[in-house]
């Protein structure tokens, strides 16, 4: 099992973005780890949903002032408010798959959930180097190769045991419905050991990752499937009934599933 395997079966999506949002595909060598590079230029508030990814984000305004921060994996939807005191802000990001950060960072990821203030501890020395690459690039098109070269230079030996990749694959293929105790039994693992490894390597427990993957796959289905059916989703994702599904989705999203299931058919 490997990062390549997971990237081949799981492609998480963010909330629908406006015209100011643009994604850039990573080079082939980084595609199993980097979901995308991205740019956001709209001067408005934006909804951030649990996409099971983690991001390094460079915030730059038209005066040249910049800051950089790391967003750990989050498990709730929130609104990122536009700073009206700083016109011309651009957000420029590196989006990592949840299994990828451990191959670039320093130390454990067990405390990164729902945080935005651990750039220096998780990626020591990266902030100035990434900012310098941005300052030296004549355009965004020239920036991505610089950041890619930096990432490849700082990627280290994969610390994730192959069995943990297999655990993540089973969670994804079974749509987040598999119970963690059952998963540990299937893989012949001690449950506490597996949970410690999930936290250290993925930033969340196995149970929480399963719930987030289930939410994310439902989100993808209602956006992409023109035949999306709530009752079929109840059966496919192991819910007791329609109310259980709708309450689950609302817990992780700011709007009801019925709104998106209708717009998905337009």
Keywords:
266 residues, alpha+beta, 5-stranded antiparallel beta sheet, two-stranded antiparallel ribbon, 11 helices
- Main sheet: strand order: 1-2-7-4-5
Helices and strands: which structural class?
alpha+beta
Rg from Cα: 19 Å
Summed over residues and divided by their number, the pLDDT gives a mean of 89
- What summary fits the major beta sheet? 5 strands, antiparallel
Helices and strands, in order, run as HEEEEEEEHHHHHHHHHH
**What's the shape?**
globular
Question: Layout of helices and strands, plus pairs?
Answer:
Blueprint: H1 3-9, E1 21-24, E2 34-40, E3 46-48, E4 54-60, E5 66-71, E6 78-80, E7 90-96, H2 119-122, H3 126-136, H4 140-154, H5 162-173, H6 180-187, H7 191-202, H8 206-224, H9 230-236, H10 242-252, H11 257-263
Antiparallel strand pairs: 1-2, 2-7, 3-6, 4-5, 4-7
Domain HTH araC/xylS-type: 162-263
InterPro entries: DUF6597 (IPR046532), HTH_AraC (IPR018060)
GO molecular function, one term: DNA-binding transcription factor activity
Q: Can you tell me about this structure?
A:
The chain folds into two domains: 3-154; 162-263, Arc Repressor Mutant, subunit A. Helix content is 42%, strand content 14%. It contains eleven helices and seven strands. β4 and β5 form a beta hairpin. Residues 162-263 form the HTH araC/xylS-type domain. It comes from Holdemania massiliensis. This is Helix-turn-helix domain-containing protein.
């Amino acid at each position: 099992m490997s990062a390549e395997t997971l990237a081949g079966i799981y492609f998480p999506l963010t909330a629908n973005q406006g015209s100011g949002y643009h994604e850039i595909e990573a080079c082939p060598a980084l595609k199993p780890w980097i979901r995308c590079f991205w740019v956001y230029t709209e001067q408005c508030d934006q909804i951030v949903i649990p996409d099971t990814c983690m991001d390094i984000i460079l915030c730059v305004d038209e005066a040249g002032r910049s800051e950089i921060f790391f967003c750990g994996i989050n498990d709730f939807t929130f609104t990122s408010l536009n700073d009206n005191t700083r016109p011309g802000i651009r957000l420029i990001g590196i989006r990592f798959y949840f299994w990828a950060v451990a191959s670039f960072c320093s130390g454990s990821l067990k405390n990164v959930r729902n945080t935005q203030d651990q750039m220096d501890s998780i990626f020591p020395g990266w902030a100035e180097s990434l900012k310098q690459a941005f300052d030296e690039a004549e355009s965004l098109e020239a920036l991505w190769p610089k950041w890619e070269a930096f990432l490849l230079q700082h990627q280290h030996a994969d610390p994730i045991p192959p069995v943990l990749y297999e655990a993540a694959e089973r969670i994804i293929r079974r749509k987040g419905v598999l119970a963690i105790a059952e998963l540990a039994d299937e893989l012949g693992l001690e449950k506490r050991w597996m949970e410690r490894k999930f936290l250290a390597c993925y930033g969340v427990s196995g149970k929480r990752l399963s719930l987030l993957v289930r939410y994310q796959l439902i989100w993808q289905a209602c956006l992409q499937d023109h035949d999306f059916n709530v009752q079929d989703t109840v059966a496919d994702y192991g819910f007791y009934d329609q109310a259980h599904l709708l309450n689950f989705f609302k817990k992780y999203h700011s709007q009801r599933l019925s709104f998106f299931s209708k717009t998905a058919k337009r």
